[in-house]
Amino acid sequence: MIGKLTGRLDYRALDHVLIDVGGVGYIVYCSDRTMAALPGVGEAISIYTDMVVREDLMQLYGFLSLVEKEWHRLLCSVQGVGAKVSLAILSALGPDGVSRAIALGDWGAVKAAKGVGPKTAQRIVLDLKDKAPSVMAMGGTITEAMDGPELEVVEPAEPVPMPKRAVKQSSGSAAASAGALSALSNLGYGPSDAASAVAEAAVSLPDAGEADLIRAALKLLAPKG
């Protein structure tokens, strides 16, 4: 299983790229948001990947964060959701947006993605709501992919420097949410309650740091009345 590719970007299409890794070209399909964050043709690239192998198909899908990759894996585990629908959801919401929508039970946000009907959106939220806390707690970004021991690494013949444009994808909001979720868990709050509070706080304070998210989430978790 190929878990990450590091090489040079040889070609860009609307929904996929061709990455040269030591003379071997890999076609990798990505969400619209990931495509927009990737470097230009001829530049260095490092990207997490998920490989789908079937009797009639073998495809790679690429992600710039572990959170995005994990949501793709979980979305594809839902009945009626394939890789195309998963990428449409990630294109519409981004990994942080998917985390918030699932944690808050906001199936309407999921339904906004192309090709997702109300029944499918509701099934996604119902099936994955309990998974949101663990995914939100993940802080992996593509800058950390260079050292990830749990991933199978396919390296080029010579080391390639990281592209600046790809590094920008590592979202501070994801790290802040993960830190806030960890802090609330340490305070004894249940994973689902903590995830919902952090997600709601992140919606109202999109640029907040970890400390501000913790304070906002604690207010939401405080007993009413």
Can you put this structure into words, describing what you see?
The chain contains ten helices and six strands. With 225 residues, it is of the alpha/beta class. It has three domains: 89 residues, OB fold (Dihydrolipoamide Acetyltransferase, E2P), CATH 2.40.50; 51 residues, no CATH class; 50 residues, Helicase, Ruva Protein, domain 3 (Orthogonal Bundle). A five-stranded mixed barrel has the order 1-2-3-5-4. Strand 4 and strand 5 form a beta hairpin. Helix 8 packs across helix 10 and helix 9 crosses helix 10. Pfam families: HHH_5 (PF14520), RuvA_C (PF07499), RuvA_N (PF01330). It is found in: Cytoplasm. One of its GO terms (biological process) is DNA recombination.
Label the overall shape.
globular
- Helicity level, as a percent range? 40-55%
Name the CATH superfamily classification of the largest domain.
Nucleic acid-binding proteins
Number of E strands: 6
Question: How big is the Rg?
Answer: 18 Å
Q: Span between N and C termini?
A: 53 Å
Order of helices and strands: EEEHEEHHHHHEHHHH
What percentage of the residues does DSSP assign to strands (E)? 15-25%
CATH architecture of the largest domain, by name, is Beta Barrel
| The CATH class of the largest domain | Mainly Beta
The description of the largest β-sheet is: 5 strands, mixed, barrel
Mean pLDDT: 82
The CATH topology of the largest domain is OB fold (Dihydrolipoamide Acetyltransferase, E2P)
Uncertain segments are 140-171
Number of domains: 3
**How many individual helices?**
10
Structural class: alpha/beta
Q: Kindly report the spatial arrangement of strands forming the biggest sheet.
A: 1-2-3-5-4
